[in-house]
Amino acid sequence: MKNKLISALFAGLLGLSVVACGTTSETATVDTVATDSSEAATVSGSESTEGSSSVSEDSASNSDATFPLTITHGLGETVIEEKPENVVAIAWGNPDVPLALGIVPVGISEANFGPRDENGLLAWTAKAFEDLGATPNVFDDTDGWDYEAISDCQPDVILAAYSGLSQEEYDRLSEIAPVVAYPTIAWTTTWQEETINNASALGLEAEGRALVADVEQLISDKLSQYPDLNGKRVAFFWLSEDDLGTFYIYTNNDPRAAFLGDLGFVTPESVTGLIDDPNAFSITVSAENADVLSDVDIIITYGTESLVTAMQNDGRFSNIPAVNNGAFVLLDSNDALAAASTPTVLSIPYAIDDYLEVLNEAAKKIQ
């Protein structure tokens, strides 16, 4: 089933490729999409394809952006002179976007979390390379960007719409090639924004929006099989079983928590009430104040059943319904689902069945 879902996204895409084109006398401008994927990132000279739900070779030729184009993002403005041919994609999830568009990047970052194959790739990314008949060129940038390896790829663009690039890193990468950074705030890019912004830099905004529409329709179709999930109050925690005195809850600025909204869940009012900084992607909570979380139906977190037992034995968590009912989704860092909880346009089709199933099992425990 997973392979069929991944392959469906590639229907009609395998003939797509990126080719360089001449510059024009005018520079188009792209404003990166932020917080709402329904907002248009306009490209002067491109045709509107609003409502498109599939990507094809014909639509690619009809919707190519006018080059050069300028992309505005959280670290400045990036000018892309010609339609990119050599594409490098770094940081989490960005490689999945050109791959979903049928474009093989000349270099990508190794995945830094979850079960990886011999090339350092997560299953859905590896499957995309396989479907395109390509061998990945992977950077090991766990301890910092491999600027030399990136430069050796001779990229025309570096995609990093979901990332935590510093200004210094962005400036150094920009000496190699134009860089597409996050729309507004580091590490807060949703999967929709990641897809559309990276696709726009390739001159394929309409195709990126079509991919988003396809995956959103897939989510809707899948959710119809789980009507009892709608409206449940869910929070994504990070806790350490060894020290429960302080824990963290991801806000909707974090794509893990934002994705729960795509699945029809509601952010508990108690969590919203604890947010002081509207730009923060997590909040810190003392266990002494955990009793305020009296409206949390389901907790998603990394850990095992022993964590649940420890929280249930700790009286400071006794006012949280999810704890009392054992309504947890426990993510194992060695399982693909843990990696897929930070979603991409390829990981969602791969993992949504498993994710909804474990969420549904947790929802059954709500009393």
Walk me through what this model shows.
The chain is an alpha/beta fold and 367 residues long. Helix content is 33%, strand content 15%. The protein has 14 helices and 13 strands. It has helices at 2-9, 57-63, 96-100, 123-131, 147-152, 167-174, 191-201, 205-223, 255-262, 269-273, 305-313, 321-325, 336-340, 347-363, and strands spanning 28-31, 69-73, 76-80, 87-89, 107-109, 138-139, 157-159, 179-180, 234-240, 243-250, 282-286, 298-302, 328-331. The strands form three sheets. It has a five-stranded parallel β-sheet with strand order 6-5-4-7-8. It has a five-stranded mixed β-sheet with strand order 11-10-9-12-13, sandwiched between helices. Strand 5, helix 4 and strand 6 form a beta-alpha-beta unit. Helix 1 (2-9) crosses helix 14 (347-363), helix 7 (191-201) packs antiparallel against helix 8 and helix 8 (205-223) runs parallel beside helix 14. Residues 1-27 and 35-62 have low confidence and may be disordered.
